[in-house]
Amino acid sequence: MRTSPDRDRGILTRDDRDYLTGRKNLTDGSERNTRQRIRDRTRNALYDLEYLTTELEDRDVTQLVVDNGEQDKAIFDATEDLIAFAFRLCQRLPDSTDHSTDELFRTLMYDGIEKSLADDHQILDFDLDLKYGDPGLAEAEILESLHKGKPLSLSQLREAVNNGYLDDSYIFRPLDGNGFPKNVDPKEELSHDDYRW
What we know:
Blueprint: H1 14-20, H2 28-54, H3 58-65, E1 66-67, E2 70-71, H4 73-91, H5 101-116, H6 135-147, H7 154-162
Antiparallel strand pairs: 1-2
Helix pairs in contact: 4-5
C-alpha cells in the first residue's frame, strides 16, 4: 500500500516522489542533479538505520508500530518495502562478486536480526530457504529431474510438495534406462508390490 505522495518529507521530498512516479518532468541537468540528490539521501538514510537500530528507545519504537492501541499496518507495509529495497540492492551488485544475490540477502537478514537481539541472546536457528522465479519453469525442471531419475535436494522436494507439482503417480526412487531402480540388481529386489493377493 503506497502512502500519499503529499505527506511530509522523509528521505524523499514531495517533488522527488512526483519525479519518481512520473508526475513531474525535469530538464536533463535538473534530472541528473535530482537523481544524485536522491542517491545521496538514500545512502545517508541507510547509514542512519544503525542509529535507529541501536539508539532509538524501545518506547519510541513501540509508538512507531502502534497507532491508537492497534498495530500500524502502514508501518509494516513500509517495512516490507524496506526489505524489498534491501533485496533489490543485493540484485544490483555486479556479477564479479563472490556471493549470489540469495546468499548476500540471506547474510543481510541473518546479520540484521542478530544486531537487533539483546546482548545476552543469539540466533539459535535460522532458515531462509529463498527460491524465486517462474513457477512453470521451476515445476518443469523438477519434474524433468524426477523423470530422468536425478535426485532432488530437500528444498526441491519441499517446493514440489508445497506447490502441488507431484501426485500419487511418483515413486521417489531414481530409475535406470530400463525402469529399474539405479544401482540395484532387479533379481535381488523384492517389495510388497511383487506380491499380489
